[in-house]
Amino acid sequence: MDYKKIRAQFPFFKNNPDQIYFDSSATSLKPQIVIDAINNYYSHYGTNPHNIDSDLGYATNTQYKMIRSKIKHFINAKKDTEIIFTSGATYSLNQIAYGLGDLIKAGDEILITRQEHGANILPWYRLAAETKAQVKFLPETNFKIDLEQLTKVITAKTKIVSFSNVPNILGYENDPRKIIAVIKKINPHVIVVVDCAQGIIHMPTDVQKWDADFIAFSAHKIFGPTGIGILWGKEELLLKLKPLIVGGGMNTRIQSNGADYILKGLPDRLEGGTSNIADIFGFGAAIDFINMLTLEEIISYMHQLKQYAVEQFNQKLKDMVIIYNADAKVGTLIFNVKDVFCQDVATHLGSCNKIIVRSGDHCARLIGEIIPDKNTIRVSFSIYNSYEDIDHLVAAIANEKDFLGRMI
Ligand code: PLP
Fold it and tell me: What is this structure's pTM?
């Protein structure tokens, strides 16, 4: 992979040549083709894809459909109409939980892991509170869902299982195909949701091979724009979801008694209102960008960076840091500097060294139940990072004796 050529495609670095960006798990930087695609929509298309009475409206609608289809291929869904545009993974997970509300009753069980991001915890707690169902936890060993013990927690009461295939802190991969096979063998009626917000760029997504029921992800973590994401579901299940948003474009009839409206088919019934059209154009370009590089190459490069970082940390910072996920393949490094609060380190790196990292619990607020320090530093790698970036990070930590002193 020609790292320099790739990096040159990200205008962020032209405008911030001295910054090192290690927060791609929170949001990735955007290549020029994504920015151009958004601009292209506003400059050339301008029209609403719901209005196809003009040539331009028709052209916008055609692009819109092509992008939906591109995303279908990217995750290997069966039909274009199973791809629902949302504002992001958080919205998608909320739509699933809200939409399933009528199917859940008192005593039912919803299973998640303790590593989930808030977006895959709170919608389920709210659903449980409203229906008197119970949220329970999937068994984990070495930070992965334990397939053997899984057989003991799936019962006739289990209605929903929702887990991330790549949790956003430690990043140990859960294999959706194996997990779903175990669950469905015991109880084929369980609805399985995979939060792919991180996994979408760290492993190939194949919803048919996995036999998943729903997945959720955001474009902004995979080189696309903010404010746009995907809810995918099996057709028959999407049709059972009660829409979270009602309004224009999603119904065929409203009667004046107000109570009775007929929903359109998929995807419209779950896409009320005018979509984020410009960012859908940008999203399409992000998928093209990934396909051009190939997802496999991106994943492999991130693994190499992670491995190099672990080696360098072990060689040069051994007595200074604690690493929590050294043997996770995924391109994130979770660590703390001994006896220094993570945010002090992150602020020191960010303000004195122009190295952008993330600190805290990374919105996975139950993580303290499975690792000793709830708050950590997360360095997340992407294709625009280099081995030299890692050398700078290591040097910035190694050369610092008094983090707080330097900042004052
Ligand atoms: N799930 C995971 C695992 C995440 O890492 C995130 C964001 O960091 C989300 C869900 C929510 O994504 P968004 O904020 O784009 O809706």
Answer: 0.97
